[in-house]
Amino acid sequence: MKKYIINLLPALALAFTLGACSDDEKTDSTVHHIIFMNMQGDEMEEVAVGFKYEDPGCMPTYMGKDYSANMVVTGLDAVDTSKPGLYGITYRCATPDGVKATAQRTVAVCNPDATVKISGTYITAAGTKCVDANGKEQTFTKSTVSVTQLATGLFSVSDLLGGYNAAMKAANTPTGSSDEIEALLLVADDGSFKPYSVNIAGKEVALDNFSDTSYDAKKGVLTWKVTYQGNTYTIVLNK
Q: Which value, in Å, is the radius of gyration of the alpha carbons in the chain?
């Protein structure tokens, strides 16, 4: 009896394997052709402030043929060369059976001729102070300010006030505000710089004045003076 059971096992295993393959489990052998997005130029293109931007474009091909007529471009109209910053352009296509392809480019409105690089992590140093509208002076140091390069001659700064509100809170003399003024800094050929896109938590704000900018590359010292809501801040930063 045991002999018959053993002889039947291979046959039962084969029957089970064949029965387990249903029509729903057959592999889809449909071939989906893809679009090749041949972006011209670089992933980041730089243009000087005030100059016209000429986009190199993108040349999609599908099954070996030009597919440009089916491409949608977004973001190109938003590039404002009068305003320093980063602008995104997206190129999109889809095949007749819905297979999508995308390419992206960043346009930096900056100063491609700038040679000064002010990026780094800085600490407020001696000489940093705030003078309020009534003439009361408050010095502060040891707060951190980050300056990040975005493109040639274009940088972002974490706080134009030099971390004043955070420093006062740490010294147990809170100002009642936790505002940090973020901005873009555009460096000129002579190394001076101006702020753009000045904002607090994404909301645009206006400065009363911004002046006395300097950068000593050898010493790693970055300085400026900013007046906001009647208070004047002299910022001295050391790397």
A: 30
Residue 6: how many other CB atoms lie within 10 Å: 9
In eight-state DSSP terms, residue 211 is E
Residue 208: phi and psi, rounded to 5, are -75, -40
- In single-letter form, the type of residue at position 27 comes to T
> Residue 125: phi, psi to the nearest 5?
-120, 180
Query: In which residue are the tokens 């900056």 written?
Result: 110
What size, in residues, is the chain? 239
The neighbour count for residue 161, using CB atoms within 10 Å, is 23
Neighbouring C-alpha atoms within 13 Å toward the C-beta of 238: 8
User: Rounded to two decimals, what is the model's pTM?
Assistant: 0.84
| Helix, strand or coil, per DSSP, at residue 169 | helix
* Paired tokens of 141: 């140091």
Name residue, tokens 């800085």.
122
- What letter would DSSP give residue 12? H
Can you tell me the distance from the alpha carbon of 173 to that of 92, in angstroms, rounded to the nearest whole number? Answer: 54
- How far is residue 61's CA from residue 68's CA, in Å, rounded to a whole number? 7
Give tens-digit pLDDT for 22-78. Answer: 444 445 567 779 999 999 999 999 999 999 999 999 999 999 999 999 999 999 999
**Does residue 49 contact residue 110 with C-beta atoms inside 8 Å?**
yes
